[in-house]
Amino acid sequence: MARLNSSLLLFLSVNLLHLFHTAVSRGGQRDYSGFVDNSFAVSGRHLFEENRFQKLNNLAHGYMTNSDLEKAIKAFHGRCGRISRIYSIGKSVLGVPLWAMEISNKPGKEEAKPAFKFIGNVHGDEPVGRELLLLLANWLCDNYMKDPLATLIVDNVHLHLLPSMNPDGFSLRSRGNANNVDLNRDFPDQFFQMNDDLGERQPETKAIMNWIKKIRFTASASLHGGALVANYPWDGTQDKSKNYYACPDDEAFRYMAKLYSGSHYNMSQSREFKAGITNGAYWYPIYGGMQDWNYIYGGCFELTLEISDNKWPPANELHTIWQYNKRSMLDLVASLVKSGVHGRVFSSDCGEPLPASIAIKGINYTIKAGERFADYHRLLAPGHQYEVTAMMPGYKTRTTTIKMGEEATQLDFILEPTSSLLPRRPCKRSSMEILEVISKPHFQVALTLMLVLAFLCFLMKRKVISNHFRGRKAIGQRRVTAV
Ligand SMILES: *[C@@H]1O[C@H](CO)[C@@H](O)[C@H](O)[C@H]1NC(C)=O
Ligand SMILES: *[C@@H]1O[C@H](CO)[C@@H](O)[C@H](O)[C@H]1NC(C)=O
Ligand SMILES: [Zn+2]
């Protein structure tokens, strides 16, 4: 009888173990971490959690505490103030500031450049990302003007790093936040009515959503642990089935994910995931995740990166993990400059920047050019031809075909007002003012350019390609396309 009982207990525990494994998903579908030891099989879940806490607590040796992290961020800024800015995007449930660092040669300044964000420690018990982001920030600082990739990134991208989205979860050694909510399930979902109540939304989630509305990120990645794979949208399926569910930009996402895994020490050698990448829903569907929300509502191409099999490795392994991921992280950020199609949109009558919509034929996803500079940054998989269209109410739509090679393409649009009486944006500024906005330090270049533009507009009434506005010069890889 006693024997029966203990085997029943064992049976129940093993099942609990399975439950636990499927519950800790996206950012550790399975717990590879060695915390699941044999002692668990004869104890209950509660004991297990305590054991786990104890082990995580011991493992925290050598990791930054939340106050260490804040000090490290401030120290970074103290050292690298010329190319950085630090700010908080909000507070956690327990009132810990969510510190972010921006790295750029013009930190805090709005420019016609793409922005990228990395978010670490979404899950409290996956702390590798928060350490790596500090290493990344300091590496960029130390190598700016020395290493070509560091220089390319600092000069051409606004890179935002949020080392910890979940500082409370970190100090509690728990996956969820202080309210025990999994933050990667707390976003509004495209298929199911969930997380739609603003009052219920966690402060960490709110902070991220406001951040994305404020800054026009072109792409991003969140850092998780528990597997080694680059995961891309969609994360969920409409019918909850576990199937490959491609988003409109599947090709571009596969390209980005492959870029990450291919530059990683050994992610691409995965036996579990072909090429070290996976469609989220194909792996296992989740709902309310941050990744899909970014793509749908933020115009931001986000990957979910699982960067170590072990969720919470001993601190002496962090440096190696950083070395394994460093090139991937840099390459992913640099892809915003080295690939895709980029440009600005102007009106032909007064050169006003137009926040037009940019669409690609065959891809059901539209991005908007920026309000201020009318710049757009559209990631696209190389090796194809694309039909790019710029649309703006009150102006004639323009379409042109580009061949996307291995380098970025610059494509500016000049839109003509429609002859109809539709309301359109009036010429607000004089041309001198526009020149100032466009390019103060390169006044002569801009002046020549404007004269050429005016000339072509006048004589040919055709679309004109302009090039080499500020910030474009430094980009050797960029191919300029004329239409
Ligand atoms: C990658 O290398 C690490 C360290 O050597 C090893 O633990 C891991 O199993 C390797 N993963 C793959 C997919 O080869
Ligand atoms: C395009 O995507 C939207 C959602 O963003 C959807 O409502 C619409 O049906 C899609 N159109 C096509 C042709 O697939
Ligand atoms: Zn995770």
CATH fold field value of the largest domain:
Aminopeptidase
In spatial order, strands of the major sheet run 1-2-4-3-5-8-6-7
The helix/strand order is HHHEEEHHEHHEEHEHHEHEEEEEEEEHHE
| CATH A-level architecture of the largest domain | 3-Layer(aba) Sandwich
Family: Belongs to the peptidase M14 family.
Keywords: Carboxypeptidase, Glycoprotein, Hydrolase, Membrane, Metal-binding, Protease, Signal, Transmembrane, Transmembrane helix, Zinc
Cofactor: Zn(2+)
Pfam families: Peptidase_M14
General description of the model:
- The chain is an alpha/beta fold.
- It has 2 domains: 59-338, 3-Layer(aba) Sandwich (Aminopeptidase); 341-437, Carboxypeptidase-like, regulatory domain (Immunoglobulin-like, Sandwich).
- It contains 13 helices and 17 strands.
- The strands form 3 sheets. The chain has an 8-stranded mixed β-sheet, sandwiched between helices.
- It starts with a helix and ends with a strand.
- The structure holds 2-acetamido-2-deoxy-beta-D-glucopyranose (2 copies) and zinc ion (ZN).
- One 2-acetamido-2-deoxy-beta-D-glucopyranose binds at residues 228, 266, 269-270.
- Belongs to the peptidase M14 family.
- It comes from Ambrosia artemisiifolia.
- GO terms for molecular function: metallocarboxypeptidase activity; zinc ion binding.
